[in-house]
Design goal:
The protein is of the alpha+beta class. It is 46% helix and 24% strand. The chain has 24 helices and 25 strands. The strands form five sheets. It has a five-stranded antiparallel beta sheet with strand order 2-1-5-4-3, sandwiched between helices. Strands 7-6-10-9-8 form a five-stranded antiparallel beta sheet, with helices on both faces. The longest helix has 67 residues. The protein is elongated and about 260 Å long.
Length: 794
């Protein structure tokens, strides 16, 4: 607004001037007021702008995401505090640096391509980038990029998604873990959809039922396992799908497709999503076949234990921690006279406690409750008031945590045992009286150390040592006779280890130095399968030993005299045999020289007579004379064959073989060595006659057509062997108490051979032939046979 000046002299104008000035002032005042108002508004606006700028700065700097502005070459022009923290640098040090420097080496090419797409004017772009700080992987970020209005700058919104990536990885890992758990858990896991069709069928279910997941998934249980409907499984599924509480059912199963059978426990519950909405049913299936079998076994075991307890001859009772009866068996009722109903539920004092024993039995019960579980001997009372001794064996009953929940005990009426103990005590007293008065030493010792634990009083009387000395360690071993100190303990130990009762005789040194013979009779007492005690009685046999020694000396003297007399008898027998052979030889010589010659002359005389009509009679007489001559020759051969004395033993045996063949029809094979040692004629005669009798036995008894005869030299002995392959015999049937034979012929041969110092051996068995060997020493001669100055050899 402007004011134009008026020319002077203008009266009207002069009169108007004050009014105009006033108007002008008024307008100026109004304009100043408006200006002041506008100035205030500007100040307020400036304050609002400043406040807004501060708020924007705060929002920009403290934004939860990083804000970065890049030039077209990728250099940073602006960056907020969050982005600076993400990049790990102060904000002032970031301006001017290329953003790509903060990416990992592998991510930089992708980041360059990403920025190029942004500057190419494409729509808003996003990517994920791994940042590096000081050469190490720092974090993963998500970048959202747009261009500025003038398209000269690129604005980035950078969000740290490291935790989200980690959570995603963990979620993936958890999902894989859950899949592995479901696949490997030793329990069936089944998931049903809202239509109750199978959605999950884990590995355990495949093993359990024998049906693969591909055969089950997508199908309704009714189509696969129709038997589940009558087991109540379908009703539980429908209840769970309707939001009902979790339920379980136990049922036997048999899969017709695979033949699998057993018992299963099926649990079902609603399957909900994150919003709590029911999206299906989850179920677990457990194979409880073994559990069922265990339960059945437990039931059977419980019944067995119950029947065992009920059939026990001893009483049984169970009480709680306060002593209240929980159980009793029939034997306990019979023992006390109280019924089961009277005892069950009764507490202390128990009905079968005698009033006078209440305090004592109650104290014992407290000791048991404090863990002292040893056997107790108490006095109980029957219902009729009769007292009886009882042996109680308590034990603690514990639960699965090891806590004691009750006590059990067996009760044995020991009335008979007490009576037996009294009888035994009386018997022991009588036994000790008998032991201490018997003539022997009754003792007991440790089976390991041989140390005495008991010795009767006779020990002191017989050997002089006080009883206390006998009970000292090593007493028995130390006082054994030196010659018996090694073998006697060894023998006793050997028998003890074999748990074998034994007796033996040994010498013991008395206190006065005497040597006492003891006969020790020992019994081994075992404990737990091992020798524990030795018990026995020692008897003084010194007098008997002295008598035995005298008898032994007398027996030795008698044996010497018998042997001497036997030798004399053998010599006499041999001399008799030799004399017999000489007489046989003399008789044979007389028959040959006298009778033989007379018969020969008679034959010659008779054959020279011409008797005419008497000729037939003379011929008969000649024949008779010839027979008599032959008989005389035979008798001569049997008495003493001349070939034996003229040619020797071997030619005589050869002649004998021919004679046996002629008489008995048996072929005898003769074998001999060239023995140049000479035997006296009498010994040769004994061997010849023995060979003849043996060959005749072969002819009569062997049942064969041939035999063998050998005359052999073996060292300093001459051996004559007769053998055949006939029926044989059992030598034991012919053996007597003396080394001869029951058979008279064999015994006679044996005696003749033995009398001249020879031996006879028989080797035979039924069906295997017989071989008899006669052997005599070459050294035997006439002096050895005829060494008696009074015999006939002289």
């Amino acid at each position: 607004m402007s004011v134009k000046p008026q020319p002077p002299g203008d009266g009207d104008a002069a009169a108007e001037l004050p009014r105009r000035v006033d108007n002008l002032l008024h307008e100026l005042r109004q304009q100043r007021s408006e200006l002041e108002l506008r100035n205030d508004e500007l100040r307020y606006s400036q304050a609002d702008v400043q406040t807004g700028l501060e708020r924007y700065t705060d929002l920009y700097d403290f934004s939860p995401v990083g804000l970065i502005t890049l030039e077209r070459d990728g250099a940073i022009t602006r960056v907020n505090l969050t982005a600076a923290l993400l990049l790990g640098r102060e904000r002032s040090r970031l301006v001017g640096r290329r953003f790509v420097e903060f990416a990992t080496e592998t991510a930089r090419p992708g980041l360059d391509a990403f920025l190029q797409r942004v500057h190419a004017g494409e729509t808003r772009q996003s990517c994920e980038l791994e940042l590096m700080i000081d050469g190490q992987l720092s974090r993963t970020v998500q970048i959202d990029a747009t261009l500025s209005a003038d398209r000269q700058e690129c604005r980035l919104v950078v969000a740290d998604i490291s935790e989200r990536k980690l959570a995603t990885a963990m979620l993936l890992e958890s999902s894989r873990f859950n899949e592995q758990v479901i696949a490997n858990v030793q329990e069936g896991i089944v998931v049903y959809g809202p239509d109750l069709h199978y959605r999950v069928w884990n590995t355990y279910m495949e093993i359990f039922t024998g049906m693969r997941a591909s055969d089950v998934l997508g199908r309704h249980p009714r189509d696969v396992f129709p038997f589940l409907e009558e087991r109540g499984v379908f009703a539980n599924l429908e209840s769970a799908l309707a939001g009902g509480a979790a339920k379980s059912v136990t049922f036997p199963f048999q899969v017709r497709q695979t033949g699998r059978a057993g018992w299963a426990l099926d649990r079902t519950a609603p399957l909900r999503n994150a919003r709590g909405e029911i999206i299906g049913v989850i179920g677990t299936v457990t194979d409880i076949t073994e559990q069922k079998r265990a339960q059945e076994a437990l039931t059977a075991s419980t019944q067995f234990v119950r029947s065992l307890i009920d059939s026990m001859q001893d009483g049984f009772l169970a009480v709680d921690l306060k002593g209240v009866h929980l159980d009793v068996n029939p034997a306990m009722c019979r023992m006390t006279g109280f019924s089961r109903e009277e005892l069950i539920g009764s507490g202390v004092p128990h009905p079968y406690w005698p009033p006078e024993q209440h305090e004592f039995i109650l104290a014992e019960f407290r000791r048991v409750s404090q863990g002292e579980l040893g056997e107790l001997e108490l006095i109980f009372m029957r219902k009729n008031g009769e007292r009886f001794p009882a042996m109680i064996t308590p034990s603690a009953v514990r639960d699965g945590t090891g806590q004691i929940v009750s006590y059990a005990a067996t009760v044995k009426d020991v009335t008979e045992r007490k009576q037996a103990e009294e009888i035994l005590a009386a018997s022991q007293r009588r036994f000790r009286d008998i032991v201490n008065t018997t003539d022997g030493i009754v003792w007991e010792a440790d089976a390991k150390t041989f140390d005495f634990t008991f010795i009767s009083r006779q020990a002191e009387r017989l050997l002089g040592y006080p009883i206390a000395d006998w009970l000292q360690p090593g007493f028995w071993l130390n006082n054994l006779h030196p010659d018996d100190r090694e073998w006697a303990p060894a023998y006793c130990l050997s028998c003890t280890e074999r748990m074998m009762p034994h007796d033996f005789e040994y010498r013991f040194m008395a206190q006065d130095g005497r040597t006492v013979w003891l006969h020790d009779i020992v019994t081994v007492v075992e404990e737990n399968g091992a020798p524990r005690w030795l018990r026995g009685i020692m008897v003084d046999i010194t007098h008997r030993k002295q008598v035995e020694q005298q008898l032994r000396e007398m027996a030795e003297s008698l044996e010497f005299k018998v042997a001497e007399r036997t030798a004399q008898l053998r010599r006499l027998s041999a001399q008799l045999a030799m004399t017999e052979e000489r007489e046989r030889r003399n008789l044979a010589q007389d028959l040959h020289d006298n009778l033989g010659q007379l018969l020969a002359v008679m034959k010659i005389k008779l054959t020279s007579i011409s008797a005419g009509e008497l000729q037939p009679l003379i011929d008969q007489m000649v024949a008779l004379v010839a027979q008599a001559d032959q008989a005389a020759r035979n008798i001569t051969q049997q008495l003493s064959p001349p070939v034996l004395y003229t040619l020797g033993l071997v030619p005589a045996l050869q002649w004998l073989a021919e004679d046996i063949e002629r008489v008995y029809g048996i072929m005898v094979h003769v074998d001999h060595d060239d023995c140049r040692r000479h035997l006296v004629h009498e010994v040769q005669a004994v061997l010849y006659r023995a060979a003849r009798e043996l060959l005749i036995n072969v002819a009569k008894h062997a049942g064969v057509r041939d035999a063998s005869l050998s005359c052999l030299c073996s060292g300093n002995r001459l051996m004559l062997v007769v053998s055949d392959a006939g029926c044989g015999f059992e030598p034991a049937d012919h053996l007597g108490a003396w080394p001869g034979y029951h058979s008279f012929g064999l015994r006679s041969i044996y005696e003749r051979i033995a009398n001249i110092g020879g031996e006879m051996e028989v080797d035979s068995s039924p069906g295997n032939g017989t071989t008899i060997t006669l052997s005599v020493p070459h050294s035997i001669g006439e002096k050895e046979i005829c060494n008696d100055p009074h015999n006939a050899c002289r």
